């Protein structure tokens, strides 16, 4: 059943890059896609979480994960933008020190 849900989400992302579920389900979907090694679709899921649920407590972590995935894909410029946005938008998040570290190359 999870495989079907992943495939449906992949189809939705092809139709709209901002396809997003309810926050808790979006996080679960992004984590599952991450665990499956589907970086491109996981990135779309994390980015949609950031765009659609900006005030959710897990959004800073979603933005951090976007940066990490962009970095893994060789898009360090986009990763830097994610880390900068995290620091600016969520300065008190527990994800912020990690964003600072990533910007320092650690």
**Helix coverage percent of residues?**
over 70%
By helix and strand content, what is the structural category? Answer: mainly alpha
Can you tell me the overall shape? globular
Count of individual beta strands: 0
Q: How far is it from the N-terminal to the C-terminal residue, by CA?
A: 38 Å
Mean pLDDT: 90
Which sheet architecture does the biggest sheet show?
none
> Which band does the percent of strand residues land in?
under 5%
Q: H/E order of the elements?
A: HHHHHH
Instruction: Provide the gyration radius in Å.
Output: 13 Å
Q: What is the count of DSSP helices, taking H or I runs of 4+ residues?
A: 6
In terms of per-residue confidence, which ranges show pLDDT below 50 for 5 or more consecutive residues?
none
